[in-house]
Amino acid sequence: xxxxxxxxxxxxxxxxxxxxxxxxxxxxxxxxxxxxxxxxxxxxxxxxxxxxxxxxxxxxxxxxxxxxxxxxxxxxxxxxxxxxxxxxxxxxxxxxxxxxxxxxxxxxxxxxxxxxxxxxxxxxxxxxxxxxxxxxxxxxxxxxxxxxxxxxxxxxxxxxxxxxxxxxxxxxxxxxxxxxxxxxxxxxxxxxxxxxxxxxxxxxxxxxxxxxxxxxxxxxxxxxxxxxxxxxxxxx
Length: 236
Known about the structure:
The chain has about 240 residues and is mainly alpha-helical. The chain has helices at about 10-30, 35-45, 80-100, 120-125, 135-145, 150-165, 170-180, 185-200, 220-235. Residues about 1-5 and about 215-235 have low confidence and may be disordered.
């Protein structure tokens, strides 16, 4: 009996490639390997910026697999390749910002029982059974972004908070969702997924001697507040 393996969607291809690109860099960074340290420093400078405006990063990571057409796999069209390159770029640069000065891996692939989706990560910034309104507003702003550059900027604020609280994120899943965001009707699908993961998270009971809430660094929160204020003024 022959088993037919379904072809991956463009978004799934983006997610898998992003995971394969991050994994060796993350391992190298945690081992203080110079090439990985240097790569992350360069990637961080691109966080929240458009791929076309960061030529210093061109060639830093290999997106060649997106341009290949393995047997039985439809090649990506020109518009799909642009979306794919942009999604990989945003995910990699946000991860590099998230990983900065952290002693454990901030990219962590989720599972069905232990998801590391964006909504789950944001909910972990809040006390169990309570809603942190400033964090919720940042999450809503990201969901209401009009285009990918705005999403990248607003996710940057959230990533700063996740880094301060040592909360990991599945960047392969995020890259897949950022690809879908750029498709017709995609933003609504991604917002729905973010909202579901936010509301589905069940906080663990706090351990003895702890409050149960992830500690958000005061400096990171203040920096995110400053960024939000500037963006609000620009939009007004």
